[in-house]
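User: I'm writing a short report section on ligand binding and want a predicted complex to refer to. Could you take this sequence and iron/sulfur cluster and write out the structure as tokens? A short remark afterwards would be nice.
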Amino acid sequence: MKIYSFEKGLLEWFKKNERKGLPWRRKRISAYEVWVSEVMLQQTQVSRVVIYYENFLKRFPSVEELAKASWEEFLPFYQGLGYYRRGKNMLETAKKIVREYGGQFPKTKKELMTLQGVGAYTANAILSFGYSKDSLAWDTNLQKVFGRFFFGNKSEKFDEKNFDEKIKAEKKIFNGAVMDFANLVCKKEPLCDSCPLKKQCKFFISNGKLELKQKKELKNSFRIETARAYVFLHAEHKMYYSSNTKKYKPFILPIGKVRREHIKEYFLNKYGLTLSVRPPHKRGYIVGRPIIFVNAQILLGVPVFSVFDRQRVHDMMALISFDS
Ligand code: SF4
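Assistant: Sure. The structure tokens for the complex follow:
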């Protein structure tokens, strides 16, 4: 019953308040066009993406056209969106789609997720918007709205599949409705007073206390002795050393080795390097595990690691999603 009124209330709200003019909301849209929009929308504001998106599709109307492009031809249509790694991934993926899939994006989540830069959310978005498949595109927006309405807080862990089955609306429309609702009403600071769902919303009924309580619990439950340190070893923040030779990966220390003296000792014993270690600059949970991010610089010794530019590292950090 509650699901039914949630779904109905959201769709009614959407009919009157849909964000108009978003070019990727056209009724007929190809998987390629959905993919382009999703790549551009990662970490970039909607209003900025709209301009780039239209120009991009004029120049590269199909995946075949994109696959033919060189980096130099591609760059002017991407420059300004930042995160060049994403751009490189786009070109690689386009070539792969043409080479291995005959120009058609795959129709299964598993195959889609083998493509460079395509995670679970983007795969579901392609399936839902591009192929009208019955998938909810779970991202932070959906997590927030469902979490608050049904459980009273946006960080609640719940079984997404359960909702996939119970939401009866066309998923393509419903995904768009929740995204708009999350951006216009159920925002970071939600506009509950004017929300049509408030009567049944657990967040509203609890006066936001459940979310606050969980925030505090997560903060208090952060036990430094069970955390892992992700060490970002850099040379004046310009080049970053990687623990993996092929792709950028920070150095991940054993559980509990998180204090400065632990990190210094670890690098000295293992690699013969003397480090200057900064205080942690971020902490949180990744799949429920406590993590701290630490920057460190080499003072003495010769590193033998692969090096990556700053942009690559920032891209990687942007893709990490913290639980809280
Ligand atoms: S009442 Fe508030 S928290 Fe609940 S769905 Fe509406 S805006 Fe979000």
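A remark for your report: The beta strands are 228-235, 239-242, 251-252, 274-277, 282-286, 289-300, 306-309. Residues 148-149, 185-186, 190-192, 195, 197-198, 201, 203-204 surround iron/sulfur cluster (CB under 6 Å).
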